[in-house]
Structure formats: C-alpha cells, structure tokens
Amino acid sequence: MGQNMPAHARVTSDIHKTNELVDVMPGQSFLSWGLTFLVTAIGALVRWPRLSQPNEIVFDETYYVKDAYAILKNGYERTAVENADQLILQGRTDVFEASGSFVAHPPMGKWVIALGEQIGGLNSFGWRIGVAFMGTLLVLVTTRVAIRLIRSIWFGALAGFLIAIDGLAIVMSRTALLDGIMTTFLLIGIWAVLIDRDYSRNRISRKLSSESSFGGRWTWHPYRIVAGIFFGLAIATKWNALWYLAVILLLSLIWDFTFRKIRRAKKPFLGTIFLDSWLLTIQVLFVAFFTYLISWTGWIRSDNGWGRSTLESDSVINNWERILTALYRYHEQIWNFHINLTTIL
User: Fold this and answer.
1) Is residue 54 reached through a cis peptide bond, with omega within 30 degrees of 0 on the bond before it?
2) H or E segment and range at residue 98
3) How open is the CA angle 111-221-193, to the nearest 5 degrees?
4) Which of 127, 123, 47 is nearest to 87 (CA)?
5) What is the DSSP string of 264-298?
6) How far is residue 42 from each of residues 37, 157, 321, measured CA to CA in Å?
7) Which residue stretches of 77-221 are H helix?
8) Does the pLDDT value for residue 1 go beyond 90?
C-alpha cells in the first residue's frame, strides 16, 4: 500500500513519524527531573562524606595534586622539590622549584582539581572537591543521556542509579585523578549531540525539501557547538577522548544521512557530504580544537613553562608563531612519551 501512495504523501508520513519520535521524548516532565535529582543525590551521598580520607596522597594523585596547585598559582606545571608529598601533608605549600615540569597530559583536568584546591586549600579535601563534583555531575548526565537514548524515564533513572553506586565510579570520584573528569566532559558532549539530534530533526522537517536533489540545508546546530566545547575540554584533560570524538563525528553524519533519506532526498549521501559534513567540522571539530588550544593559555602566557622559552622573538606575530611551534614540539614530546611506554615485569 505504501508503494501506491503519492510521493508527497509518503514524505509527509515519514516526517510525521520522525516528529512523533521526537515529540514523545519523556525527558522534560516533573517525574523525569525528579528521578534525575534523586539518583544524583544518592550519588552525592556516597561520594562526599569523609572525602578527605585517606588523609594522604594516593596513587597518581602524587602527580596531579602538585601539578594542579602549580597551575593555580603560576598557570603552568612546575618541578616539585624532593619529598614534596610529605611536605604537603605537613601543611607546606612552597614545594616547587622555578623550572617548568614536563607533563604527560594536557592541563584542563588539573584546572578542575586546582579549583578545588582554591576552595579547600592544598589538603586531601581540597584536591578532591573538584573531582567529587564532576563525579556527582556524571550521575545526573548519565541519567539524562539514558532517558534520551532509551525514551524511558524509569530505565534512565536505573542507569543513573547504577553509576551512582558503581564501585569504580565512586573511587574515581573520590580520588584526584583525571579519568572521571574526562568521562564527565565526554558524556556532557554526548548529551549535547543527542539533544541536537532530536532538536534538529524536529525542525528540519519543516525546512528541508524532498524536491531538492540533496534535500536542502539546515545550518543552525547550537547544541553541536556545545558538544564541541565539551569534547574539547575532554581532550584537554586526556587525549583518550579523541577516539570518542571520532566516533561521534561519524555517528552524527550517519544521523544526517538517514534523515535526508527519510526526507526522500534524491541524493542523500551527497547532501550529507556537501551540506552537512563541513558544518559538522566547523561546529564540533574546530570548536573542540580551539577549546583545547585555549586550555593551554596558562602555559602560553608563562615564561618558565616546560619548553616555553626555547623559542623567543621581539615580533608579536613572529612570537605567536614561535609559541605555537614550541607548543607543537611539546606535544611531540608528550606523544613520544605515550607511544614509548613499556611494561616492566
């Protein structure tokens, strides 16, 4: 019967189905947000009490606690003196030499830890505040992402509850490490992409034309810009996030293609390539790149950051060229550090 329908009728039917899928999204109800805040509160209750315990620097906190405090005070990581951990536990804060320190990860995650140290001081509570906040926020975002994906308030709340009580998630929320921070930034970016998918499909249906070979264009994707910012923040925390960005870019193109196909564009693939891909590149990839670059502002403005002063010039324009060259060389060192890691048995 569908084959006998006029072309415009089939298009209208498909678009109504698309709109119906979007419009039944249950995420904006009082129950939806009530359950979201409930599971988030549960997550907070198992993350914040006795946050200062153990009152010591554990595992890789030895790197990030000091790096974060150096960034807070100087804008860049500095080399710590010998026995710096013991001195910090004794209440000392003058634990740095003048020289910059080589680091294996970008600065954004350490800025989050540094904000906690600004609030709570250089102690076990202070350096874990920011991470605990991000871990609690992760519960909320997980719930919202699950509701939008599954279209079920109850299953979304279950997903949030499971992450709220997950042992690994709790530990990563109570330790000054980067992984939990990166995960939260990533998931916020994914949430924004999912909102964009629904937001756009609900409006593109009134903009695109099935009579166009490519299906027409839709340029305004504000949530993709938001996604680009948070993917940039995630990558500026740990480079692992690059893989997720690549997958999201591909998935977004697939969604754009399928919608053009639903709209019965004559050449949906070409429409996706010529009308969607460059916008996606600007609104997500370029935004993520510039967000990442901005995260290095403290190092760029410094004189003593690792490798920062190896290239100098009196010319403003030439100096910027030299700064970016120095930053590129620094990234080469970070890259070589990661690919040359070996296991010691």
Assistant:
1) yes
2) strand 96-100
3) 55
4) 123
5) T-SSHHHHIIIIIHHHHIIIIIIHHHHHHHHTTHH
6) 9, 11, 50
7) 84-89, 108-120, 126-150, 153-165, 167-173, 179-204
8) no
When computed from its CA atoms, the radius of gyration of the chain, rounded to whole angstroms, is: 24
Look at 333 and 224; give whichever has higher pLDDT. 224
3-state helix, strand, coil in the chain (%, to 5): 70, 0, 30
**Any idea how long the chain is?**
345
pLDDT recorded at residue 270: 77
Partners of residue 80 on adjacent β-strands: 96
Please state the domain extents for the chain: 11-310
Percent of the chain with pLDDT over 90: 60
The one-letter amino acid code at 190 reads: I
For residues 198-228, one letter each, b for 16 or more C-beta atoms within 10 angstroms of the residue's C-beta and e for the rest, the string is bbbbeebbeebebebebbbebeebebbbbbb
Return d(Cα 2, Cα 7) in angstroms, integer. Answer: 10
Residue 188: per-residue pLDDT: 98
Q: What is the enclosing helix (H) or strand (E) of 80?
A: strand 78-80
Q: Tens digit of pLDDT for each residue in 152-185?
A: 999 999 999 999 999 999 999 999 999 999 999 9
For residue 259, give the amino acid letter: F
Residue 270 contacts residue 217 (beta carbons within 8 Å): no
Average pLDDT, integer, range 328-339: 85
Residue 283 has which token pair? 């609104």
Phi, psi of 96 (to 5 degrees): -125, 145
Q: Which two tokens stand for residue 81?
A: 């003196």
Neighbouring-strand partners of residue 78 = 100
Query: 78-80 and 96-100: which strand pairing?
Result: antiparallel
CB atoms within 10 A of CB 64: 27
Query: Are 181 and 240 in contact, with CB atoms under 8 Å apart?
Result: no
